[in-house]
Write the structure tokens for this entry.
Amino acid sequence: MAGPSLEQWISDLGLQQVNDPDVDKPVYRLPAPDGRITLSAALEEISASVREARERRNLSRSKLAPLLGITEAVYARYEASVSRLTVGRLIHLCEVLGASPEELLAPAALHLLGQKAKQSKVDLLLACIDKLRAFDEETLQDVFSLLKRLGKTGMSGHGGNGAASAAPLLARAAGPLKRMNGHGGT
């Protein structure tokens, strides 16, 4: 399995070599719009998003920590970016907060959601992901089929004729969505 050369891979993805103070060798990263590309900056964003997710759910640290099997002091170190979250702990946080991985990780990786993604676009993508999670498999398949067809219509996402050409597709998709939401259908 030959695949692209390392140089080609770096070029194709637009990666840049950086010296991260937390890593003793050069690493390659995508530049974030704010220019921060160190791992520690991403960890600070994740810590902040975990705190914000906890606060949105009106949970105190003293209530959340026992759900994770840790003390409040240990949990506080995660939110303060003093201790690093493991992947396992991050998954556990998603479980006990009822949060999606995207909700906790997206603030640290906005640049992965599109070059210079606006916060409104990020919020919309996260809201769509939340809605998609609630769909049954049949409805999710219908939505996926709709998205594939929308991609084939040449919609650019900038209005114009794309929205008009999508109208029949959206009307056909309304049937499965109404069934799923209990508005008519079967």
Strands lie at 16-18, 27-29. DSSP finds nine helices and two strands in the chain.
